[in-house]
Batch of 2 targets.
Target 1
Amino acid sequence: MDVAARIHEQLSNCGIKLAASLPDDWVAPLIERIATDNRIRHVRVAREAEAIAICSGAFFGGVRAVALMGATGLLTCTGELATLNLRHQIPVFLIVSQRGSIDDHRIYQEVQGRRTIPLLQAYDFPYHILDRPDDVSSIPDAFETCRMQKRPFVLFLTRRLVKGEGTA
Amino acid sequence: MRARAAIDLLARHRGDAVAVCALGMAANEWWAATKSEDSFYMHGAMGFAASFALGLALSLPQAPIWLINADGSLCMNLGCLLTEASQAARNLKHFVLDNGVYQSVGALPMVNDGRTDYAAIARAAGFPRARTIEALTDLEGQLPAIVGEDGPALTVLRLEPEEGFLRTPPMTYEGPEMKYRFGRALERRFGIEVFGPQGY
């Protein structure tokens, strides 16, 4: 089973029924896999903060949801995460590519690599990093932690997890 | 038409709709008219009441969902119209309070005031139904049909900029309490579980 299939399986185990997404190339295979699952309502958005607010609305409909995006997209929604989710203590579960890591040789990702986690720490948003295929089994615990902490929770996917060993 | 009169009219035709209100005038006036706990009043995330309402509508297809949006908020996230059109939630109705100004910060003019046709933008984004209503009597006449039609549907209400508006949110609760009052109201009405057995 490939990594996207394993993550998808764990999201199903969490009871996820809605996914809102805007892809980067690392999360694209997972998004397209979820899009074929007719048990999950998939919402393609035009801006990542839409995904945050859609998942927040779904929370009040009693539906478990996930927002999928790249690290650059996460940076664009920090205002909404603060003034909607932090303000009202609304949990939102995000799966985000951990761009800008030492094995991600894309110059336009280097700021994301240096500043994303410090930014989450400044907001006191919890996060967890999936780096190896065996880590994927921790997704239900991460989702429950998100619910309990009642705030945004970011689950990062590393390049090694989604692309395998080696750099590019 | 005047904002308060338009909102009062919407409130009278609301029936059992759950409302999501953009921050500022939309939220403040809807509270003043309804004092309803089964409404969510945005205090932040300007532009994203529309997305919140879409997520709620997709998750509660048995519930009529009314989005009370405003022109300032709509312009901050025009892409929401593409997403709303593509998802085609039949239970979602989108109202836009269009007064051409940022009223709750002192009625400063909006960008492109008076030259933008939001209903045309919605139709171009894929909305099957969108219209602009200028007069209160027209709104009164058209509301029964609007209430009865399937979403996605967008109705722009052309309002006069006003003095003496509600500058401070008049809701008597906020933050986490708004989450729990709104979520518990939906649990009672629809028999759903928003919060788990331990309350989170």
Target 2
Amino acid sequence: MAQFNKSDIGALLAKQGILIAFAVFMIGFTLANPRFIELDNVSGVIRSSAILGVMALGVTFVVIGGNLDLSVGSMMSFSTIVVLDLHDKLGPGLAIVAMFALTLALGAFIGFLVGYLKLNSLIVTLGMLSAIHGLTLTWSGGKNMDIADKSGTWFAFFGQARVMGVPVPILIFALLAVLLSLLLAKTPFGRKVYAVGGNGQAATFSGIPRARVVFMTYLLSAFCVATAGLLQASRSMGSQNTVGQGMELEVLAAVILGGASLLGGSGTVVKTVIGVLILGFIQSGLLLVGLDFYVQYIVTWIIIILAVWLDVAAKRGRLWSPIA
Amino acid sequence: MTEQTPVLRLEGIVKTFPGVRALDDVSFSVMPGEVHALMGENGAGKSTLMKVLGGIHAPDSGQIFIGEEPVVMTSPMQAKASGVVFIHQELSLADELSVAENIFLGELPLKGFGRVDWKKLHADTDAILKTLNVGFDSTKRVGDLSIANQQMVEIGRALTVNPRAVIFDEPTASLTDAEKVVLFDVIADLQSRGVGIVYISHRMEEIFRITDRISVLRDGQYRGTLTTAETDEEEVTQLMIGRKLDLSRNESHHEMGDVALEVRGLSCGALYQDVNFSVRRGEVLGFYGLVGAGRTEIAETIFGLRTPSAGQILLDSQEVHISSPIDALRHGISLVPENRKSQGLVLGMNCRDNMTLPQVDDLTAGPFVSDGAEIAIFDQYRDKLDIRTPGWRQIVGNLSGGNQQKIVIGKWLSMRPEVLIVDEPTRGIDVGSKSEIHNLIRDLAAQGYAVIVISSEMPEVLHVSDRIVAMYSGRVMREFTSEEVTEDNLIQAISGIAAEKVA
């Protein structure tokens, strides 16, 4: 007879801990406030998660490739401010193109430093977090950026319109998720990202251009950030310089929550999407049960720690082990 | 040792992992003062058994006895407290700390206010070092010691408790012959104090030199225990692999084709100088020499991982410039690297993806990797190389060493190279898989591949090569045909003794 002992429970928690914790959260929130699982709230959560989600898709590639990207929050502020500023100077079309070009240039710069010069990604992107913030403030002169004629432009389409009843940010998130999921899981490029993150030296010995692959993951991440910046700018039509501040951690939390290992080589786009949704529902639940918005910051930290712990635990098959 | 109680006894140990019965009713015991060899191919269950003993894995059933007392091992600390200590192949020392701090790591003697009692620490350490008869003292920084002496520190760590049983896991892997003698002395000393020794090694010579009994595992099952004095290598090998092993000289002869690769005056800084050789299609060219003689560096240069400082590389008599592995692959050169775990495989990836990695760009249907094309290649080379895996989805890290090596060979063979370079083809692989890989290398040559084999094992070089290049300190000392080579002249060449004669 199968005995249910302590180590079984440990192993189960280690493997499926995130989903179990999520289920407990959902049930708890629903009991506390039944509005939590109404369609309204659910679609609201998904919509408000879309911007974070789009950024997390790109960071998924970076993390699987064995690196970190802590610059995405401040890069998103940059994209938002730039596109809002240029909107009134160049018109919406050119503004969007210019903003994508500038954001991709930032991504290429990071990719060059981490990929080709082989600098530590934590240091590089932590530095870029600060540098890009400075760049944004310099661009705006520290002022909030607003579109002057909010009703006379089609720019609002990305953040506010609906297509067949579905909010456009959700559509863009979903579309990107599908495309990037195919890119990661089905193409030679995706395979190389896993190889480079899983064992860079073996990848080199297999004739894979490691530097170029790392470079591309940062370019991809910048592309996602630019898209997120577009959604953000279009939704609010005006913004502070700090709109993306702190999002790098939430993005990282979502990616790890989805099960990507910080050591690189594992994770999937679908899992990241699940991570994003879990984070979104938990944050919405906290508000609905009447907790302060600020509690989110603490909870996000707790979730990161929990996710990292379970990631380690899943590898060794139990929650705690005397050897590393 | 008839009526004595074993110091350590494992009884009916069963351990299953998802899909694998890693240990199937294994029993095993060590008498006081006995050196007991534990042998088996990679994947036979030796490591798992030791992990059960060390409290890292909990057995599904079965019991462990220390003396007459049943114990449940829950952690390595507890195993040590009950007198079972491990000397691992990979040392786990803190380089920056002193010998004394390493030996008493985690249990430094204290005096008031949590201060370390340095005097006692060094006195205790020196007492232990004295029993080990080593030539360094307790204040020495561990990072400054040789590997052999670091191993002594590791053994010293085991002696801080009064050990009942000491398990040595491949302890001689990185030791010179002289250093081995010192180690064997220490083992003999432990033996004389009534400690039971479990000795895990693939090296027959050592096994027959120092052990009293030999127990063999195969496929997770206990296959029997032999008394060392009453058996021989052949019997042990047969028990391990279930059949006989062929390790004779290479005597097969087949047609050889044109010269596929030629190297002229190749030099790479201080690593090696003025190297000349050529290899024909259908030929196996062996490279023999000590570690550091420059063999691997030559291979890495041909594969585009190093830039030569002088000389030419010619393929089919045409000079080529190879500046990256991508170039090398384009020119039909494949390299099975020296270290399969760090250079050959992405351990977390499945078998198929590892095998097709270098050519994944060419296996596409539209923008996507073609599942069918990949599986076809995997199946073809799994059958050809007899790779034993439950399926292509199996994560490579879960395979045995021999099967992992076959995946790496399959990976490079499936590139259909003109020249295949194999660096240390059987390092860390059990005897059974070893001979399979040797046969495979011979077969490849017979099929017309030009093969270069780099090896530190003389029987291996003698067994597979048609010609042998002997290297010493970055230079080619001599080239032998398989008819003229003898163990003696080969050893002379690689130790520089014949240097004057040739030069």
